[in-house]
């Protein structure tokens, strides 16, 4: 076959057509990927794994009490080193902690992985909800714990 005077093999055109037909399915799949390991969260079928539905759609502001299970499928507790305790209700601690609204709690008011981390967005500083070039993750800790002397 010739296109604009250039001879192109039929096999090449068939392979190109196959790639173009199946690329959307590959992008929308929830399998492992190179690059952003959280890219499969862009697939809306994944939303109910972390978010609670109100009506027919998952509510982006409400998180299931089982959301940590999704994180722990890949991130094993044993490999995390020092980490903030989860499954704690901040207002029930001796200091009666107040958590800012942008640092979400699960639907039972407990700290979860997604309180400090986001599954969406670029991998900047461990997917932290707050960080700074100068203060690193300390700005996240200070949101609830205040500045330490």
Total domains? 2
- Element-by-element helix/strand order: EEHEEHHH
Coarse morphology: globular
Largest sheet, described in full? Answer: 2 strands, antiparallel
* Share in helix: 10-25%
How far apart are the first and last residues' alpha carbons, in Å? 75 Å
The count of β-strands is 4
Mean of residue pLDDT values: 78
Helix segment tally: 4
Integer-rounded radius of gyration: 22 Å
SSE class = alpha+beta
What does this structure look like?
The chain has four helices and four strands; from the N terminus they run ββαββααα. It is an alpha+beta fold and about 150 residues long. A two-stranded antiparallel ribbon has the order 1-2. The chain has a two-stranded antiparallel sheet with strand order 3-4. About 25% of the residues lie in helices and about 10% in strands. The protein starts with a strand and ends with a helix. The chain is globular. The relative contact order is 0.11. It folds into two domains: about 1-30, no CATH class; about 40-145, no CATH class.
Characteristics:
single chain, alpha+beta, 4 helices, 2 domains, 25% helix, globular, two-stranded antiparallel ribbon, 4 strands, 149 residues
